[in-house]
UniProtKB/TrEMBL annotation:
One of its GO terms (cellular component) is cytosol. PANTHER family: TRNA (CYTIDINE_URIDINE-2'-O-)-METHYLTRANSFERASE TRMJ, TRNA/RRNA METHYLTRANSFERASE. Belongs to the class IV-like SAM-binding methyltransferase superfamily. RNA methyltransferase TrmH family. It holds the Pfam family SpoU_methylase. The keyword S-adenosyl-L-methionine applies. Its EC number is 2.1.1.200. Residues 5-155 form the tRNA/rRNA methyltransferase SpoU type domain. The lineage of its organism: Bacteria, Pseudomonadati, Pseudomonadota, Gammaproteobacteria, Methylococcales. This is tRNA (cytidine/uridine-2'-O-)-methyltransferase TrmJ. It is found in: Cytoplasm. It comes from Methylomonas koyamae.
Amino acid sequence: MLSNFKVVLVETSHPGNIGAVARAMKNMEMFELRLVAPKYFPHADATARASGADDVLRRAEVYTGLSEAIADCQLVLGASARDRTISWPTVVAREMAERWGGAAAADQNVALVFGRENSGLTNQELDLCHYLLRIPCNPDYSSLNLAAAVQVACYELYVASGRQHRSGVGDQGEEPLASAEQMEGFYEHLLQTMADIGFLHPERSRSIMRRLRRLFNRAQLDTKELDILRGILRFSQNHNAK
Ligand code: SAH
């Protein structure tokens, strides 16, 4: 997935930025880079800044004009930091990724077009685009570095295509999660213990037990954590009995 997306850079003047773009793309598993009349390419600065993404640079295709670079694309999005006096239909990066980053749009070639470092894209170039792509940011300082802009767009696509890994919480995941039956055993044990130590009366416990269930369900206990909690309950009961 995402192989249908092409990153197109128009007349980039700093070759280091081209390398940084290649790196940003490869980080997000995107590999198709197209360069429209780059000032210097290939260049040692590009290779240096690509740091290991030289395969993306090697595969990069160079074009003389934007229309040639996007000729095989069904959808063209022009990234711009500036509000234009004539209004183009605009999408923000996340919306772009949600609309076109999934499997549903995978059969169309999509060009993400980025402009020059000093002057962005011309209105004539934006005329070739279906949408203007914006990265929301500080309205008083809205121009990102070229590679940073590519990074944000590709990151949003990566997330929307469902490839980001779930956040981890320490070593959770090594133990299987507790089953419903194990949780019921725990709740009975908890209720019994709370009654034994005089914390509550079992007949008047419904609302507190519901809240406690909600709390433990939120935590999604694994079997090891459940063992620890039951150990504490056993200990409290024994201690109380003495
Ligand atoms: N000074 C230029 C901006 C150059 S930044 C100008 O005034 O237009 C280089 C490129 O990065 C821009 O052409 C655009 O494609 C992209 N870019 C930078 N910031 C962006 C933003 N906030 N939203 C969308 N694209 C952005």
